[in-house]
Structure formats: C-alpha cells, structure tokens
C-alpha cells in the first residue's frame, strides 16, 4: 500500500525551500568544473511522463547514464521533478563517500563475500573463466570508481551509451522473437512497465529498466511485416559494419559481467525468463 503525501505536505515544502533541483545541477556542474566529467557530457536531464492527472512521474538521468525517478505519489509535475531530483541527489552525494570507492580492500572483502554465498572457492578469483574470477576482474578494472559507476554498466556501456541504431538492433531481436512466439512482446512490455514502476517506487537506479521498456515499446510499435523487413535490412548492414566489435563486446559481456551488467546483456541477446531483475 502506497503512502501518499498531500500537495502541501511538510516534506514537499522542505524541498521547495531547498531548491533540490538547483542543488543537483550545481553538484554535477562542480564535478564538470573539477574535470571529473568529460566536457562533452550533458548535465542532468529530466523526463516527465505525460499524464492527465496524478500520480505524476518524472525521471532524471545523470551524466554517465544513471537514472532515477520520483519515489512518492506526486500531485504535480513540479513535485515529481523535485522528488526525482531528491533521490538522484541523495545517491550522488552518498556515492562520494570514501566507503563507496572500489579499493583493493573493498575487492578482497567483496570476493570473500561472493565466495561465501556461492559454490565457488577463493582460488577461483585468479581465473577469469569462473564467475568469481570474472567478478574479481571487473572490480579490479574499475578500481577507483564508485559502486554506482560500477553498478551502472559494464565497461563497454559505460564508455558508449545506447544510440538509436543500437536500440533498433535490439528491437529487431525482439521482433524476431515475436514472430516465433506471437504475443511475447506485449507480455514482456507489461512486465517491463511493472518492473520499472516497482524499482522507481523503491528508489533504485533505473537505467536498465527504462532502456528495456523503451526498446520493447519500439519493437511493439513496429510489429508488422513491412517494418520487420525494413528493420531486418538495417540489422544486416549494422552487423556487417560492426561484426568484430559486436561479437567481442557480446563475449566480454557474457564472460565479465556483474549482476546488473549480465542482466543488460541477457536482455540484449536472450529471451527474458519473466523474472524481476535486480
């Protein structure tokens, strides 16, 4: 059961006074000035979902691709924007704490914890061919980064965001699955919308969920024979131009992924198993 606060709640008035939207912008602007971010990166981007009435939903995407949404039931678009900014600011500032940086000590503790919860052993950490070894390697490759940056995406996706052509390629995969199993797209889209909503209401990072929903929506909007034929031609061209890079990235994804990264790869190359993703 959702806890809904009224439009004039004390909590909302507090964040109006704090100008949390401005604070979030200033936080990332300062990181850009300090040279922590690439100059070509955009700052904070907001996306309000069209709605005839409350509850209103707003997403905020941070430089690098991390995405958050409003946590509470919002009675106005401005309130949803402030709440999304609040969640993003809390994660951004918490992410700056020393304990959130990936260090050799952190890696050692994390690997030991992973071993204790799996059937592996500590010796596997030196073998990238094992799940423990892949996890250890990915942590080592991201030494010095924050856990939010590490959780966001694997190395490939952290360096290159999904562009429209890549989305079209992924949508084609789903269109082909729709041909094999009619009705699959609608089921997967309903599940993706549900997962996105649940993740947003718990204040979680939303990039994977939001990308999945948008790609499924794209696929469903072109789920007829003519569009499928056009997408197939584009896909063959895309594969020919990027064949080596494509297979290298897919292999890297499968061999060196973390929990969140593997989910993104699984969505890219396999049918969804219908389970909620973390």
Automatic annotation (TrEMBL):
Mind listing the GO biological process terms from this record?
autophagosome maturation
Q: Name one GO cellular component term.
A: cytoplasm
Question: Which Pfam families does the UniProt record give?
Answer: LIX1
Q: Which family is this sequence assigned to?
A: Belongs to the LIX1 family.
Q: What is this protein called?
A: Limb expression 1-like protein
What is the organism field in this record? Labeo rohita (Indian major carp)
Top-down, what is the taxonomic lineage of the species of origin?
Eukaryota, Metazoa, Chordata, Craniata, Vertebrata
């Amino acid at each position: 059961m959702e806890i809904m606060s009224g439009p004039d709640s004390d909590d909302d008035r507090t964040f109006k006074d704090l100008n949390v939207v401005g604070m979030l912008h200033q936080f990332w602007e300062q990181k850009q000035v300090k040279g922590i971010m690439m100059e070509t990166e955009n700052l904070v981007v907001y996306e309000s979902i069209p709605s005839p009435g409350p509850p209103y939903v707003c997403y905020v995407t941070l430089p690098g691709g991390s995405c958050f949404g409003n946590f509470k039931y919002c009675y106005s678009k401005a309130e949803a924007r402030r709440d999304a900014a609040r969640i993003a600011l809390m994660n951004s500032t918490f992410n700056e704490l020393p304990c959130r940086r990936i260090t050799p000590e952190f890696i050692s503790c994390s690997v030991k914890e992973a071993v204790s919860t799996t059937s592996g052993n500590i010796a596997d950490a030196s073998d990238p061919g094992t799940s423990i070894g892949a996890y250890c390697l990915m942590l080592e490759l991201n030494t010095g980064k924050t856990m939010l940056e590490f959780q966001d995406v694997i190395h490939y996706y952290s360096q290159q965001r999904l562009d429209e052509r890549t989305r079209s390629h992924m949508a084609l995969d789903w269109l082909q699955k729709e041909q094999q199993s009619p009705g699959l797209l609608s089921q997967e889209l309903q599940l993706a919308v549900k997962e996105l909503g649940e993740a947003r209401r718990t204040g979680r990072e939303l990039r994977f969920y939001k990308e999945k929903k948008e790609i499924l929506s794209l696929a469903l909007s072109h789920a007829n024979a003519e569009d499928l034929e056009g997408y197939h031609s584009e896909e063959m061209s895309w594969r020919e131009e990027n064949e080596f890079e494509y297979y290298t990235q897919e292999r890297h994804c499968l061999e060196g992924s973390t929990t969140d990264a593997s989910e993104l790869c699984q969505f890219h190359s396999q049918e969804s198993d219908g389970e909620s993703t973390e």
